[in-house]
Every structure is written in structure tokens, then in C-alpha cells.
Specification:
The termini are far apart. This protein is 78% helix and 0% strand. InterPro entries: Ion_channel_UNC-93 (IPR010291), MFS_trans_sf (IPR036259), UNC-93-like_regulator (IPR051617).
Amino acid sequence: MERKFMNVILLGFGFMFVFTAFQTMGNIEKTILDSIRQDDSTFTADGYTSLAIIYATLAVCNWMAPSVITITGPRGAMLIGAVTYLFFIITFLFPRTWLLYVASVLIGAGAAAIWTGQGNYLTLNSDADTISRNSGVFWAMLQCSLFFGNLFVFIKFQGKTHIDLETRNVVFGALTAVSAVGIVFLLLLRPTRRAPAIDDVKCEIVAEPEGPLDAFKGAIKLFCTRDMIFLSAAFIYTGVELSFFSGVYSPSIGFTLAMGENVKQLVGLSGVFIGMGEVLGGALFGILGNKTTRWGRDPIVIMGYFIHMTSFFLIFINLPNVAPFGDTMDTSYITPSSYLAMLCSFLLGFGDACYNTQIYSILGGKYSDNSTSAFALFKFTQSLAAAACFFYSSKALLSVQLGVLAVLASIGTAAFCRVEWSDRARSRLAVDNVDDKLSPVTHSLAENALHYD
């Protein structure tokens, strides 16, 4: 197997194990912290607040991530970040309000390092022919973390209305071990040289910074470019829908008591179906990456838009308006259905894969010479939006949250397509200019050939 593709596979395994621990924890954090508060009156931490702190810190620290990577390199940054994820999981074994919030700050800083390093490392191991494939393969492997972790939680939570201490410790201990395995895979990553420029025609190129200060200035300069501003609208939407499906939707299912006695285990099952959608989308666009790129990235993003809009409508009629706040016997426009809830989970995951695989592809292709700053800005914008969503999730009714998602999806999709269509038009214009310059030469050669005959 080609060395660079092997690096992508190892990267995928590393992130799959690390995020099996974190994404599973994020999915159940609201539910499980409520159980801890029932057992320990001194514990007052809130799941939404913890997740909001994580993403707010991640957003701020993303501005420093390019500078850190100039010192540590992408592999070093990913290892540092992975250790903070491990620490975050371990703190759940010793529930203290202050410790959880400190760990939330640390993992937010670590997330900035691990994700910016990942984007840079993936780009370095890709070229024009492999960037779409590698993005899809990585995304599919990463999202297997939702499948395996939440399947484990589904089994452990079966038949439970309250998550007791023993069950919690088994889950936390298993997730800690899984996170450690992910760090081992990241240690196996090999250094690689910079890949060739992915696009023959480069627009708004920002040179790769040489030092920490230059990296910071380069990130600010890139952030102010027209295309990055447009892409930021898509980044914002992915951040809000990420926080919704990873921290709000699944707990809302678990709080909807009208679904039956085993409703708590549906929290884990929802994560499994989200993971199935993510993996299918990532695998599909990875395998077909070379074929889909000839039509552009916009058809896939538009497909993700309609899939998400469908899921938002179904969630609106299926779950009660107060479901994000805690246990409720309320119903919505129909009797709450667990089957419909799982279908929506799958649609949320598949639609998210549509957006994220194409964002990875456009950043790795359009900004291959400045991938560190490009991916840092992506995670900054996405994380800031996710933090904002978690802050208002504890106050906003479900219908309000779905309305915000629908508006941002429309704006973000339109903005992404605007950038994609502009790039395609510039590429065609550049090719036409080359043809115009070559045509006199070609005509002269043809005349000489006829004269020779």
C-alpha cells in the first residue's frame, strides 16, 4: 500500500478510537450528568454547559493552532490534543463540578491542536487525484466512532431509567481504554513531505507561514478573503447542526418518556444510527470521490441540504417542544415514534457527511498551500457556532432550534455553492485563456504540415 495512503488509514484509526470515547461521551453527557446529580447533591455540573465551554475554548484556541503547529508539526499537535481527550474522559471517573469544567477548557484547547493538525496532515498526504478519496475514507473511519461507542452504550443502558454508579464506571473505564488505543495509532504516524499543488490555477493563495507570528498573521489574512467569508457561512451551519445532533437530539429522545419504558437506551441507539449515516456517507463519497468531483462538490452539498430539511420536519412533528430540557410526558403533532426518531438520526448523520466531506475536499484542494490556516479557520468558525448552540440549547424550545437550523442550512448551502461555482468559472476561464494562447501555435503547425505534404 502507498505510504501516504497508509498514513491516512492510520490517521483514521487514531481518530476513530479517540473519538469513540469523546463522541460517545458527548452524546450521553447530558443524560449521564443528570443521573450523577441525582446521586450526589454536591455535583452541579451541566452537560450543555460543559459542551459549550469545550467549543468556545476550541474556537478561541484555533487562532493559535497554526502557530503551535509551526513548532510541533501536525503529528505533535495531534498527540498533544489526544492526551487532553484522554484526560477529559478520566475525569468522569471522579465526578467533581470544578474538575469537569477545567477538563472542558483543556479539551477545547487540545481539540484546536488535534483538528488543525489533522487537516494539515491529511492535505500533506493527498494530491489532486486523492484528496476527495482520502477525505471520504477518513470521514467514514472517524464516524465509525459513533457506531461502536453508542452501540456499547445501548447495550449497557438497556432496561435502565437511572444510570447507576456501577454502570457509569464501566462505561467510563471502557471509553478511557479506547481513547488510549487511539493515541497509540497516532504515535505510528510517519512524517511526510508536502504534496504537490492540487490545483493548477490558484486563487487568493496565502504562502505557508514560516514562524508562529507569521502563521497567526497568515490566518487573519486568509480569514478576510472573499471566498473564506462565504465558506464561513457553511462552517457556521455545520457547527450548529453538529452540536444539535451530537448533544441535543439524542438526549431529547431519551427525555421523551412517551416512547416507552426503555427510552434511555434509545440515546445510545440514536448515536448508532447517526454513526451509520456518517459512515455510509463518508464511504460513499470516498469510493466515488474521483467520479463525483467531475460534477463538482455542490450536488452533494445540495443533497445534504434536502436530507437535513426533511429530518428537521420529521423531528418537529415527532418530539415534544420541551424535550431538550428534561424528562417529559408531552407529545408533539403525532405520538412519539422510536422508529421515526432513529430514521431522523440516520438522516442527520448522512446529511452531515455530505457537508463535511465536501468541506474537507474544498479546503484541501483550494488551500493546499496554506492548509494549516484554512483548517484552523474552519474549526474556529464551526466551534464558535457549536458553542453558541449549546449555550442556547438549555433555554430554546425544540421548534426554535429547528428553525435556526433551517435558516442557517439555507444560507450555508447557498454560500458554499457560490464559492464552488466561482472556482469552476475561474478554472474554465483559465483553460480558455491557455487555449487562446496555444491556438496560433497550433494553427502554424497545421499550415507547416500541409505545406510539407
